[in-house]
TrEMBL record, chains A, B:
Superkingdom in the source lineage: Bacteria
Domain called HTH arsR-type: residue spans: 1-94
Signal peptide: none
Stored Gene3D superfamilies: Winged helix-like DNA-binding domain superfamily/Winged helix DNA-binding domain
The protein's name in its UniProt record: Helix-turn-helix transcriptional regulator
DNA sequence: CGAATACTGTGCCATAAGGCTAAGTATTGC
DNA sequence: GCAATACTTAGCCTTATGGCACAGTATTCG
C-alpha cells in the first residue's frame, strides 16, 4: 500500500460531502461567517458547524473568531494537494501510454 | 445548495478511501485482475471486493470477467470530472482576485 | 474426475458520519 | 441591563462504512 498519505486522505474525506464541497465553492468567492454560510443549507446550525470543523481539521479552511462571529476562509494551497494527486495519476498514465507507443512502434519495424 | 452533483459526490466518496485511491494508482499502470490487486493489501478478499464494487459503482473503474478471473481497468475520463471540479474552484478564485485587483487599481488612481 | 484457484454471497460486528434537539456561553445593540 | 444574536456543547439516534469469517459457485489444471 505504498504512498499512503493521511493528509490526502483527510482532504478527500472532507470533499466527499456535498455540503462541504459547496462551502468550499462559496468560500472561493471570499471569506464568510459561519452564520452567513449556514443560511444556504437546509440543516441546523450545530450540524453545519460539524462540517466547518471537519473542513478546518483537514486543513481546507482557516477560521478566526472576532467577537461572536466566526469567519471562514478557504486555504487554496491545500486544494492544490488534491490537484497534485490527480496530476500524479495523469503522469503515471502518460508514462504508460508512452511505453505502449514505443512498443507498438518497435513492433511495426 | 446550488450545483449539487450526485456524480461528483460518488467520485469523491470513492476516492476518500486510501485503499481505493491506491487501486486507482495501480490501475493507472494498466489493467489488473482482482486477485493480483488484492494481494497488495492487508485485508481479506471479500473486503477488497467491496472496494472494487464501490469503485465500479461510482464509475472509476470498469471490470470484466473472463473465466474465473475478473479484470479491472481505470476509467480515466471519470477522474477528469474531479479535475474539472477543481478547475472550477480555481476559476472562481481567479475571477475574484481579478475583481479585487481591479478594485485596488481603481482606488490607487 | 477431483483438487486447486478465483472469486462471490451471506451475515455479523464495531465504529464513524451526519443529522437532530435542548441547553449553554459570550457579544452586541437598544 | 436585558434581549437578541451567533455560535457552542452535550447527548442521542439512525444509517453507512469497512472489516471479518465462513460457505458457496464456477473454472481450470493434472
Amino acid at each position: 500500500m505504498a504512498q499512503y498519505s493521511e493528509e490526502l486522505d483527510g482532504l478527500f474525506v472532507a470533499l466527499a460531502d456535498p455540503t462541504r464541497r459547496e462551502v468550499v465553492r462559496r468560500l472561493g468567492r471570499g471569506p464568510q461567517s459561519v452564520g452567513d454560510l449556514a443560511r444556504a443549507f437546509p440543516i441546523t446550525l450545530p450540524s453545519f458547524m460539524k462540517h466547518v470543523r471537519t473542513l478546518e481539521a483537514n486543513g481546507l479552511i482557516r477560521t478566526t473568531k472576532s467577537g461572536r462571529v466566526r469567519t471562514c476562509a478557504l486555504r487554496r494551497e491545500r486544494l492544490a494537494l488534491v490537484d497534485g494527486w490527480l496530476a500524479e495519476q495523469r503522469r503515471i498514465w502518460e508514462d504508460r501510454t508512452d511505453r505502449l507507443e514505443r512498443l507498438v512502434t518497435e513492433e511495426e519495424q
